[in-house]
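About this split. The held-out portion is used to measure sequence recovery: a designer receives only the structure tokens and must propose an amino acid at every position. Recovery is the fraction of positions where the proposal matches the reference. Here is one held-out target exactly as it appears in the evaluation file.
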């Protein structure tokens, strides 16, 4: 990827999550209620800071065989892993970027523990068929030229972790819940029309703090 020259840790030391509603921020910290938004929902949000019309679409210019030309390759979340829900966080210092998405900012002091808690919960409380948790940094290379050909799994991963360079200041790190379904074709949405799913731990997250407004 074009931003591979910057080596980042697999999981950041600290993350920030902005909430528009104080009760939602408190529920996250005090009750462990973690709400994931369905990926395609972010294409039509009213908030311009959060809206991305191409969310869920991977786009790279790939080399064509025996040619100097390149061609666009597009992959969406609706093949193979049919449904993808994401928790969007920022690694930017002091939560400034996160506050653009909501004035009530939660600092996650141990993201690795949060990921482990989510995985443990889903192992006995699957929210979607065959859930898988994939935490990863967002790359900001949508539309860039690829240095090599990517396989189907890599393109699929890009569909929920790639954005355009205009979002690079967000320093976004995502925790994605994937529904691992057949590659034969899209299946019915297991949640119906819901735009969110919630992991409900029903306990205080001791590794999280609600920052003062």
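Reference sequence for scoring:
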């Amino acid at each position: 990827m074009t931003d591979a020259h910057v080596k980042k840790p697999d999981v950041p030391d600290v993350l920030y999550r902005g909430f528009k509603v104080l009760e939602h921020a408190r529920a996250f910290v005090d009750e462990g209620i973690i709400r994931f938004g369905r990926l395609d929902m972010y294409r039509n949000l009213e908030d311009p800071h959060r809206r991305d019309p191409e969310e869920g679409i991977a786009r790279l210019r790939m080399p064509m065989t025996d040619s100097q030309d390149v061609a666009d390759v597009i992959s969406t979340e609706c093949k193979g892993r049919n449904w993808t829900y994401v928790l969007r966080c920022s690694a930017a210092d002091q939560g400034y970027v996160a506050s653009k998405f909501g004035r009530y900012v939660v600092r996650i002091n141990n993201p690795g523990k949060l990921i482990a808690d989510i995985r443990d919960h889903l192992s006995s409380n699957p929210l979607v068929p065959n859930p898988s948790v994939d935490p990863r940094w967002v790359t900001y290379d949508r539309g860039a030229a690829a240095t090599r050909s990517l396989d189907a799994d890599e393109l699929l991963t890009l569909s929920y972790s790639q954005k355009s360079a205009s979002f690079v200041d967000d320093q976004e790190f995502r925790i994605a819940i994937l529904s691992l379904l057949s590659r034969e074709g899209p299946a019915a949405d297991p949640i119906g029309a819901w735009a969110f799913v919630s992991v409900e731990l029903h306990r205080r997250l001791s590794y999280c703090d609600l920052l003062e407004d």
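Annotator remark: The chain is about 15% helix and 30% strand.
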